[in-house]
Amino acid sequence: MLHLAVFASGRGSNLRAIDQAITDGRLDARVVAVISNRAASGALDFAREHGIPALSLSEIAAEAEDSWLQEQLAKCGCDFISLAGYMKLLPAGVVSAYRHRITNIHPALLPSFGGKGMFGRHVHEAVLASGAKVSGATVHLVDEEYDRGPIVMQRCVPIADDDTAERLAARVLEIEHRIYPESLQLFADGRVTVRDNKTSIRS
Ligand code: GRF
After folding, report:
1. Annotation marks residue 3 as catalytic
2. Fewer CB within 10 Å, N- or C-terminus of the chain?
3. Are 22 and 31 in contact (CB under 8 A)?
4. Which of 27, 43, 24 minimizes the C-alpha distance to 35?
């Protein structure tokens, strides 16, 4: 079973999808903490309503962040981290302590349309401006850069000629809610290995 810390700065719909998958028995995990860099977030509200430890980084000085986070993660028994709309780079010490045990979900097909500044509607506007015929969602392992680690799972959605960023975002979000719990279950089952910066999934 994964003891998950979910890092989420925003509304928290992926956190809810993960929680729902656990309730339905599709994901063998327990959410041991929800952590946000913003004091007011839907994800923290959800955690509080569900008796999950809710931690905010907003009062922690930048230089203390790395050690504070590592201490909190150890305290809550976290053995796996999932970023779900977390708007900040994880400190290097956390990345290295949880190497290959941190995932992120991105609302496009990486390695395109990722990196610093590529979040929310910026991603979908860039995808539409590119003229691409498909978009999708990517779950990947996290390293020291935004949106860069080895890809774990991707799924496509079609793009219509008259699509808007809002409609595309909604279509992609639906896929995100499916592939994030599915990807995490691969880790819970010990099926993911990483070599040469690529993952392979044991069947
Ligand atoms: C999602 O689109 C995710 O791909 C991106 O941030 C958004 C978070 O949405 N990284 P939510 O807070 O899970 O609803």
Report:
1. no
2. C
3. yes
4. 43
Atom 12 of ligand 1, residue of closest alpha carbon: 12
pTM given for the model: 0.97
Residues in the chain: 203
Tell me, using a 6 A CB cutoff, whether residue 14 lines ligand 1.
Answer: yes
Q: What is the pLDDT of residues 103-155, one digit of tens each?
A: 999 999 999 999 999 999 999 999 999 999 999 999 999 999 999 999 999 99
Task: Choose one of 6, 9, 13, 154 to mutate for the ligand 1 pocket test, by most ligand atoms within 8 angstroms of C-beta.
Answer: 13
Residue (of 131, 133, 178, 116) closest to 153 by Cα position: 178
- Whether the Cβ atoms of residue 159 and residue 152 lie closer than 8 Å to each other: no
Which residue intervals of 76-159 are DSSP H helices? 92-97, 121-130
